[in-house]
Design goal:
With 318 residues, the chain is α/β, with parallel strands linked by helices. It has two domains: 216 residues, NAD(P)-binding Rossmann-like Domain (Rossmann fold, 3-Layer(aba) Sandwich); 77 residues, UDP-galactose 4-epimerase, domain 1 (Alpha-Beta Complex), CATH 3.90.25.10. The chain is 40% helix and 16% strand.
Length: 318
């Protein structure tokens, strides 16, 4: 009998962690997952997908190195997917220290844990297209310099360089997936895409609220999260560790996202949206999108859901 491969997913309760768990279970993996308080967490997303009972849950605080070592020893993984950390760009302006700690120090602790316990573990680190800042109408590729424009992006950039350093210095199989925006029904409402979709639903059901948004001229590379977790897995199946951009390559403006969402409900968005300068970020990229050609050429991965189709799928899923 062939032994199952074991995966440890750090940050399993989030959107990506839940979908990745579902994906790996489908491939026959034994899946461990961590959160800060495994006994007290609801793991709503895992329950929603019907897989909570199939995942072995552990408590782990990424900033606490001892906690990381305990989780590694309990799970003894072949593969680690480090998805943990504060995940909201907007919130990072309000909680910069917590954002840096959970992302950068957490990544460092995981790398150091792998170095000490088993250098054969394969580690995936969740990077972000936010690291590039404003791509100024040109798609970012793996050689594009970083220009982070938020504490979140600074933290993700730091973690990216830590992964590269440990890969070069110690020969770890560690890589970063530089993922651009990816959405799904599992996104919490603090993300603008889900905020829009739920507001449209309420308005379509007779609600009288106005949807308050910040800048509408920004453009982002929005993809479908269920497709992106496959790219994470593919990166750890390669013969050598490399970093890859995961994106659609087809950005749309937030105004178009809003327009299509309201069109799904048979409404004109201009009748229901108010721009509120209080929601403007201190710094924000006007346009951000990626060039996923390396992922296509080397991993065989391509985003199948792009642009306004993401909006329609989100609306139909609520």
């Amino acid at each position: 009998m062939i032994n199952k491969r074991t995966a440890l997913i750090c940050g399993i309760s989030g959107q990506d962690g839940a979908y990745l768990s579902q994906f790996l279970l489908g491939k026959g993996y034994r899946v461990f997952g961590t959160s800060r308080d495994a006994q007290g967490s609801t793991f709503y997303n895992l329950t929603r997908l019907g897989i909570k009972e199939r995942v072995e849950l552990l408590s782990m605080a990424p900033e606490d190195f001892r906690s990381v070592l305990v989780a590694l020893r309990k799970s003894n993984p072949d593969e680690i997917y480090y998805l943990a950390g504060q995940s909201s760009v907007g919130l990072s302006f309000e909680q910069p220290a917590e954002t840096m700690q959970s992302i950068t120090v957490g990544t460092l602790n995981m790398l150091e844990g792998c170095r000490m316990i088993d250098e054969n573990i394969r580690l995936y680190h969740a990077g972000s297209g936010e690291c590039f800042g404003d791509t100024k109408g040109v798609p970012a590729n793996e050689a594009t310099p970083f220009y982070p424009m938020s504490p979140y992006a600074v933290a993700k950039s730091s973690a990216y360089w830590l992964v590269n350093n440990y890969r070069d210095a110690y020969g770890l199989f560690a890589c970063t997936g530089i993922l651009f925006n990816h959405e799904s029904p599992l996104r919490p409402e603090r993300f603008v895409t889900q905020k829009i979709i739920h507001a449209v639903k309420r308005i379509a059901d007779g609600g009288s609220e106005k949807l308050k948004l910040g800048r509408l001229d920004i453009a982002r590379d929005w993809g479908w999260a269920l497709e992106y977790v496959e790219a994470m897995w593919l990166m750890l199946q390669q013969s050598k560790p490399q970093d890859y951009i995961v994106a659609t390559g087809a950005p749309i403006a937030l105004e178009d996202f809003v327009r299509v969402a309201f069109e799904c409900a048979g409404l004109n968005w201009r009748d229901h949206v108010v721009q509120d300068e209080k929601l403007f970020r201190p710094a924000d990229a006007t346009i951000s999108f990626g060039d996923p050609s390396k992922a296509l050429n080397e991993l065989g991965w391509k985003a199948l859901t792009q642009g306004t189709e993401v909006v329609r799928k989100m609306y139909q899923s609520v």
